[in-house]
Amino acid sequence: ARRLVRRAALGAEDPRLAGVEGLASRITPNDRHYTVDESLLKPYVDLRDWRLEIAGNVARPFALTYDELLDLESVEQPHTLQCISNEVGGPLIGTAVWTGVMVRGLLERAGLKPGSFEVVFRSVDGYSDSVALAKAMDPGTLVAYLMNGNSLPRDHGYPARVLVPEIYGMKNVKWLRKIGRAHV
């Protein structure tokens, strides 16, 4: 990250848990982190053409190239993703250290207009989902571009995805191309 302003705080591991059989590591390696997708084919994103648009019910819509996204102040944080259909103890869960830009800052830069209640996230493959405006403005809601210190793997939404705290994985849109506020 070019302008990292906050590092992830993981804290010390509990030594009583060392060597406990079947206990997963605190951070899931990228190649072992679960993925579930709506489409059969994962999109290929060409960075020469990709832009992240911030639009909708805002005063100053704008778009960022990948390079411009990397130039913004970023934060690093641990975040657990879980599939809504994961059973207790199931494999559809993983925790990574993600790096990205706070959605709050992007929406503030665009100039929030009154009269909105949710933020819509749209993928390059046509998938979209939304969260309440208050959730989008949470400091933990990110446009992430690094996963465990590496560029997002294609399976996890390269070049950018949304991470929303305390919400199931399907709401964390991958292959992000647009953030827009929905009208009331």
Please characterize this protein's 3D structure.
The protein is mostly beta strands and 184 residues long. The protein contains 3 helices and 11 strands; from the N terminus they run βββαββαββαββββ. A hairpin with a 4-residue loop joins β6 (116-123) and β7. The longest helix is centred in the middle third of the chain and has 8 residues, at 103-110. It is globular and about 55 Å long. The model has no long low-confidence stretch (mean pLDDT 89).
Number of strands: 11
Spatial extent as radius of gyration: 17 Å
The percent of residues in helical segments reads: under 10%
In this structure, how is the largest beta sheet organized? 6 strands, mixed
Figure out the total of helices. 3
Averaging pLDDT over every residue, what do you get?
89
Alpha-carbon distance between the two ends: 36 Å
Low-confidence stretches: none
Our estimate of the beta-strand percent is 25-35%
**Element-by-element helix/strand order:** EEEHEEHEEHEEEE
- What best-fitting shape do the alpha-carbon axes yield? globular
How do the helices and strands line up, and which of them pair or pack?
Elements: E1 4-6, E2 52-56, E3 62-64, H1 66-71, E4 74-82, E5 93-102, H2 103-110, E6 116-123, E7 128-132, H3 133-136, E8 142-147, E9 150-151, E10 161-163, E11 176-183
Parallel strand pairs: 1-4, 2-11
Antiparallel strand pairs: 2-3, 4-5, 5-8, 6-7, 6-11, 8-9, 8-10
Explain briefly what this protein structure is:
The chain contains three helices and eleven strands; from the N terminus they run E-E-E-H-E-E-H-E-E-H-E-E-E-E. The chain has 184 residues and is mainly beta. Strand 6 and strand 7 form a beta hairpin.
